[in-house]
Amino acid sequence: MLTVSTVNVNGLRAASKKGYLEWLSATAADVVCLQETRAEPDQLPPAVREPEGWHLLLAPSATKGRSGVAVLSRTEPSASRIGFGSEEFDDSGRYAEVELPGLVVASLYLPSGDVGTERQDEKERFMAEFLPYLAALRERAEAEGKDVAVCGDWNIAHREIDLKNWKANQKSAGFLPEEREWMSRVFDELGYVDVFRQQNPDGPGPYSWWSYRGKAFDNDSGWRIDYQAVTSGLAERAVDAVVERAPSYDKRWSDHAPVTVTFDRS
Predict the structure, then answer these.
(1) Are 60 and 37 in contact (CB under 8 A)?
(2) Which of the residue ranges 57-61, 92-96, 210-214 would you say has the lowest mean pLDDT?
(3) Known binder of ligand: residue 153?
(4) pLDDT tens-digit profile of 138-173?
(5) Residue 8 marked in a binding site
(6) pLDDT at 118 > cutoff 90
(7) Do 108 and 131 contact (CB within 8 A), yes or no?
(8) Domain Endonuclease/exonuclease/phosphatase: where (predicted)?
(9) Residues labelled catalytic
(10) What CATH number is attached to the domain comprising 53?
(11) Confidence tier at 230 by pLDDT (50, 70, 90)
(12) What's the DSSP call for residue 119?
């Protein structure tokens, strides 16, 4: 079996003090994608920077304390890449990928946006640049006989069943019609599969992010914004997909929960 997990850690240094390392040591995952690491390598303790049994690719943001993505793999990658050929975004800590036997795995942290601000403009520019790269990545991998899994915090809830209070959020960043249409293009035009939803077709939920404010976690008032977008051949081999939701608020080590998918390697 091949198990891939993705989680926004909301600060790798903070998460490592609250349960991330214990989770990593216990996970059955072969590959783990992290987002919002917010750390330079020299800021991380050895157990986080060089976890036993893992190969770590860390892509920090040029703006210190912001963004950052990482990929951990039990198998040493044959190649790796930071960024996707964007002059604006390649040093922003938002994309990194590794090549493994028969598989390309990428960690993505798409900008969150904020309606009516420059942050939303930035998100839209990122989406416009990233879409053709996703298409080219799939084509390149297919030519090499490889599958692709683009995992991470996409900061978009695709459908109404992907967030609790969808009616109240129709004009909010993360659930705007144009953002949802962009996600549909990823799945419909580009041929990627929302493998978690394939395995869990009924909603609402389960969700992968809950605000720290109020009683969002206790009331399960969340959003599903963490995805594994995989090529069709890999999706056909999926056997299980779960959100590793913490048992209680005080057991959380991030405001996101790991999304873990298991595939048959054959």
Answers:
(1) yes
(2) 210-214
(3) yes
(4) 999 999 999 999 999 999 999 999 999 999 999 999
(5) yes
(6) yes
(7) no
(8) 6-256
(9) 109, 153, 256
(10) 3.60.10.10
(11) very high
(12) H
Q: Is 200 annotated as a binding residue?
A: no
Q: Please state the domain count of the chain.
A: 1
Confirm or deny that 255 is annotated as ligand binding.
Answer: yes
How many CB atoms neighbour CB 140 within 10 A?
12
Q: What is the mean pLDDT of residues 32-52?
A: 95
264 is in an annotated binding site: no
b/e burial code for range 202-229 (CB count within 10 A of at least 16 → b): eeebbbbbbeeeeebbeeeebbbbbbbb
pLDDT in the model for residue 130: 98
Confidence band of 214 (pLDDT split at 50, 70, 90): confident
Strand duo 259-263 + 238-243: pairing: antiparallel
Task: Tell me how far apart the 2 most distant CA atoms of the chain are, in Å.
Answer: 49
Model pLDDT, residue 200? 97
Tell me the residue range of the domain where 27 lies. 2-263
Structure-block tokens of residue 195 = 């493998």
- The verdict on whether residue 226 carries a ligand-binding annotation is no
The pLDDT value recorded for residue 265 is 85
Q: Is the pTM of this model over 0.85?
A: yes
- For tokens 């720290």, name the residue: 212
State the residue for tokens 């604006």.
88
Distance, in Å, from the CA atom of 125 to the CA atom of 19, rounded to the nearest integer, reads 35
